[in-house]
Amino acid sequence: MKQALYNARVSQQQRTRGRPRAFDRDRAVLDAARLFWRRGYSGTSTRDLTAALGLSTSSLYAAFGSKAGLFEEAVRTYAERYREIYRQAVAEKDLRTVIDRLLIDSVHEFTRPSDVHPGCLLSSAAMTDSTSTLDTSAYYAELHGWNERALLARIERAVQDGELAAGTDAAALTGLVQSVVHGLSVRANLGATHEDLMATARLAHELLCRHLTASTP
Amino acid sequence: MKQALYNARVSQQQRTRGRPRAFDRDRAVLDAARLFWRRGYSGTSTRDLTAALGLSTSSLYAAFGSKAGLFEEAVRTYAERYREIYRQAVAEKDLRTVIDRLLIDSVHEFTRPSDVHPGCLLSSAAMTDSTSTLDTSAYYAELHGWNERALLARIERAVQDGELAAGTDAAALTGLVQSVVHGLSVRANLGATHEDLMATARLAHELLCRHLTASTP
DNA sequence: CTTCTTCTGAATCGTTTGCTCCATAAAAGG
DNA sequence: CCTTTTATGGAGCAAACGATTCAGAAGAAG
Questions:
Q1: Which CATH class is domain B74-123+133-213?
Q2: Chain B partners of A214 at a C-beta cutoff of 8 Å?
Q3: Contacts of A145 in chain B (CB under 8 A)
Q4: DSSP readout, chain A?
Q5: Residue A120 CA from chain centroid, whole number
Q6: What does the pLDDT average to over A136-148?
Q7: pLDDT for A96 beyond 90
Q8: B89 compared with B79, residue with greater pLDDT
Q9: pTM of this structure
Q10: Is the CB atom of residue A21 positioned under 7 angstroms from any atom of strand D?
Q11: Predicted pLDDT at A133
């Protein structure tokens, strides 16, 4: 199994034998992710990658196995960041803070100044999978399924704990919050400014909190 | 200018001289759109297109000029449907109906039973433009800019007409509605059912209307 | 009928694609 | 020192790509 070799060498590289790698592997993954983000998987050739990353074809294949392997690693790397946003948000104590953190952190993630083209990498990369070993569409659905279930569980817990009224439709509430988050990503992608998105996040938070208050027994 | 020839022959074809076209042009555009939607521009080869549309290479090039030309026509065709949703929604009399129509019509558009893979075609096709004659990213931004401005103007008019309180932040309200609509598209894309999205649309409408009522003088 | 115009199918062109091979370079182990 | 191990750079392969060409087919106009 050759693939294991590429994944075994994690970012914390310990000194091994042989000639040391001349480029920063993690940096290369991030640069590749940005390229895939903008032009899609099929739209990004290996020549584009080697040119942008500043390394030769053989170096790329020695480090990542294939174009699909590099793509897969780029997707997984970015995916963890989104999962982390949900993980931290649902850990908050009261539901208002959960929603607030989720919305605000999402806006910050979608409009990072380091990324020239903001928005969620996955929503664009997920479409053009082609013959990738990773079924990106399924992976993307799985990731967002995980995030959505985490949020739903948190809201249902709030209902059980009496933080919300017993009759509250947790699923519908989850769906709305998810829609707003996804919508923020799309609008970031379309060029909305950080301030625009923050205004949306604040208004959404206000309306949702008012709804929660109204539902509170 | 050869391109003019391809565009001149509109769907309402009047009998011309020469051998008649053996396939349905409009149907071919829609089928191509679905293919581009799923696999992106670069991910869809001309062989894929000719196979799925059931026509030969020369027929495709005679009818659309190039792969980019077919893509451009597919994008423009779909874009008009989305523009129409906004056009009809903002024409409604009171603002509550505007928002209701926009949300509900969007859900219906994003989960049409005829389309196997639902969601907004443009949000996926816009990423993988490559060397297309149409700068899809810019076209996409322009379309949604038009829609957003139409909605913003409608909300501002509501403020001026006294339908809403004078202090209402029309821009923030527009941003939130837009985010929800885009979010509905993304979730449809991720496999959310028609009922899920309808529940989201209803809840969003409820919260927004409550907000409007609270803002009313 | 003939002529004119347009569409179709097959073959194919030149380019780009993802990827491999191999000689060489640079470190570590003995 | 020499051997082993890994990375680099460049040349290049087989396949797929977008696009073109051309002989023939099919209807409209005269």
A1: mainly alpha
A2: 210
A3: 190
A4: --HHHHHHS-SSPPP-SSSPPSS-HHHHHHHHHHHHHHH-STTS-HHHHHHHHT--HHHHHHHHSSHHHHHHHHHHHHHHHHHHHHHHHHTSSSHHHHHHHHHHHHHHHHT-TT-SS-S-HHHHHTT--TT-SS-HHHHHHHHHHHHHHHHHHHHHHHHHTTSS-TT--HHHHHHHHHHHHHHHHHHHHTT--HHHHHHHHHHHHHHHHHHHHHH--
A5: 6
A6: 87
A7: yes
A8: B89
A9: 0.89
A10: yes
A11: 62
Computed on alpha carbons and rounded to an integer, the radius of gyration of chain B in Å comes to 20
Give residue-wise pLDDT tens across range B130-186.
Answer: 555 667 777 888 899 999 999 999 999 999 998 998 889 999 999 999 999 999 999
- The protein footprint on chain C, as nucleotides within 7 A of a CB, is 4-12, 16-22, 25-29
Q: How far is the CA of A10 from the C1' of C30 (A)?
A: 28
**pLDDT > 80? residue B190:** yes
Question: Hunting for tokens 């909605």 — which residue is that?
Answer: B151
A198 conformational bin, left if phi > 0, alpha if psi -120 to 50, beta if neither: alpha
Residue A56 CA, nucleotide C21 C1', distance (Å): 14
Greater confidence (A12 vs A96) lies with A96
Spatial separation of the C-alpha atoms in residues A57 and A49, rounded to whole Å: 9
- Whether residues A180 and B180 touch (CB distance < 8 A) is answered with yes
Check if the beta carbon of residue A171 is closer than 8 Å to that of residue B187: no
pLDDT higher than 80, residue A5: no
